[in-house]
């Protein structure tokens, strides 16, 4: 299989639209959750409620992933994505100016968040349709790079908006970004029909297809390979703040991790040939855990940032799984398959943060980070048969 290039990927108009709107989505969501957290804290003075507000947009992901994902295949993808942006815009305006009590603000974010995995699934499933062959994997890597970059930029821009316009102004700006993204999607994407036909209710169909996907050994193995190593990465990152004593230095380490992820995705996606990319999945998954082992020695902020960056670069192991995942799932449920992949990843990261956080209470943050790294290495070794593709499959890619 011939390696794709950036020029070939960006020459596709639909990808440019997906790329630009995704950057607006990620950056806007970061600003929204940061502003909501500040707004809740200003009203209540409660650190716990402020933290709950920051996480509220992600908590419903598991429920939406379990019960609503079939909508990603039963509705036209452009309409779904535009609807998602408009819902986000209206939500931000209500949070900013409706004068809602705190409980109603959190409830609004939770309810609208139930549909987030559906909107994400529609976008992810459209990517292999507009970028065939190796271009799909390179496009996926570019979206991962822009995700990491938009998170960093979103935090910086959000801080500026909060300083000059307050949380309501920042929320209004996020609503504007969502409105722009909706226009870009509506004007830039052609109409594509739904992949699947409407049948049973959305909840029943979602449960049925999730069961069908998880009962397939090949699909289940690829899903677990995409989820489990990231559980312990998230757990290690969740311990960075307490490891550094709750100081602002943690932001440097977490920003370094985001930068390492972006560099790894860019390098592997662009410069590794398709066959090499799949062979790299196993060693890169191991790399995801190894650097965290050195936190047992108590590194300072400089070494901690470097170790976090190297570990996060290992996230590019997932690029070697993407082609096989697309080939393994039936086209008519591709949207739900990508949604299940994302929902499981979000759930696993939350579970990893909780597990390693609890361990940190018992044995201190540094050793807990090292344990998380060791567990990540062991998981990668246990998944070696999935992470390491069959030689015959790799040979076909290199022909």
From TrEMBL:
Keywords: Cell membrane, Membrane, Transmembrane, Transmembrane helix. Its main location: membrane. The keyword Protein biosynthesis does not apply. The chain crosses the membrane at residues 21-42, 48-72, 103-122, 170-189, 222-244, 250-268, 280-297, 366-387. Pfam families: MFS_1 (PF07690). It is found in: Cell membrane. It is a multi-pass membrane protein. This is MFS transporter. The lineage of its organism: Bacteria, Bacillati, Actinomycetota, Actinomycetes, Streptosporangiales.
């Amino acid at each position: 299989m011939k390696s794709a290039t950036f020029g070939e990927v960006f020459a596709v108009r639909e990808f440019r639209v997906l790329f630009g709107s995704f950057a607006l989505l990620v950056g806007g969501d970061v600003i929204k959750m940061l502003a909501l957290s500040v707004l809740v804290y200003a009203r209540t003075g409660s650190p716990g409620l402020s933290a709950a507000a920051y996480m509220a947009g992600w908590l419903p992901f598991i429920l939406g992933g379990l019960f609503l994902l079939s909508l990603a295949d039963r509705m036209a993808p452009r309409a779904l994505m535009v609807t998602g942006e408009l819902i986000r815009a209206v939500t931000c305006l209500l949070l900013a100016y409706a004068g809602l009590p705190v409980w109603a603000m959190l409830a609004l974010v939770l309810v609208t968040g139930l549909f987030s995995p559906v909107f994400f699934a529609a976008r992810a499933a459209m990517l292999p349709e507009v970028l065939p062959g190796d271009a799909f994997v390179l496009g996926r890597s570019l979206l991962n790079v822009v995700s990491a970059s938009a998170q960093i930029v979103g935090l910086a821009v959000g801080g500026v908006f909060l300083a000059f316009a307050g949380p309501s102004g920042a929320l209004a700006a996020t609503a504007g970004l969502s409105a722009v993204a909706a226009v870009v999607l509506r004007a830039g994407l052609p109409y594509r029909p739904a992949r699947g036909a409407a049948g049973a209710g959305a909840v029943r169909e979602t449960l049925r297809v999730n069961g069908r996907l998880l009962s397939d050994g090949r699909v289940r193995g690829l899903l677990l390979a995409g989820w489990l190593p990231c559980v312990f990465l998230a757990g290690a990152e969740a311990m960075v703040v307490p490891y550094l004593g709750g100081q602002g230095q943690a932001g440097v380490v977490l920003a370094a991790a985001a930068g390492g992820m972006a560099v790894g995705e860019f390098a592997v996606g662009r410069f590794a040939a398709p066959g090499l990319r799949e062979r790299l999945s196993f060693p890169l998954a191991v790399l995801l855990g190894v650097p965290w082992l050195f936190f047992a020695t108590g590194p300072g902020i400089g070494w901690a940032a470097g170790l976090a960056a190297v570990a996060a670069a290992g996230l590019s192991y997932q690029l070697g799984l993407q082609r096989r995942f697309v080939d393994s799932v039936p086209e008519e449920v591709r949207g739900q398959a990508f949604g299940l992949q994302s929902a499981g990843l979000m759930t696993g990261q939350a579970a990893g943060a909780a597990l390693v956080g609890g361990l940190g209470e018992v044995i201190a943050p540094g050793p807990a980070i090292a344990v998380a790294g060791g567990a990540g290495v062991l998981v990668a070794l246990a998944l070696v048969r999935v992470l390491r593709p069959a030689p015959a499959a790799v040979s076909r890619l290199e022909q």
